[in-house]
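Progress narrative, work stream C.
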Amino acid sequence: EETMFLGLRKRSGIDLALVSGRYDERIIQKIEPKVRALENAGLLCRRGSVVCLAPEALLISNEVFREFVE
């Protein structure tokens, strides 16, 4: 959760492949549905394995981050 929260605060986003390699693969399996839902809602963008906030979501970033800490 903290890794996602902190990674998404960066404009460059977070590389899920690196997270998967650093931590247990189950973490990615756990967050993937949330990532997909936020991506479908236009709040996250995905470039390969990198996920970042969509430009439109910058003003409501705390709402997006909350999805990963609940």
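Work stream C, second folded protein:
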Amino acid sequence: GNAPSPAADDVERLKSRLRVGGKIRHVAFGVGTIAAIEGRGQLLRLTLDFGDNGQKKLSFNRAVMELLDE
């Protein structure tokens, strides 16, 4: 079987809340704004604008980034 684990379910729920203009806190780069969202599933990539730290294109990784509620 390939049933999604509760953790995977949680990630999918989180991904569904991602919005351009939304805020994310990254463990290394701090708080950033989502500038673009590409791909889906395991291939989901975010372009994040960290202000002074510049823009970074990163694969979505629940372990290192946290979605901040507006």
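The longest helix spans residues 6-16. No further action is required on this item.
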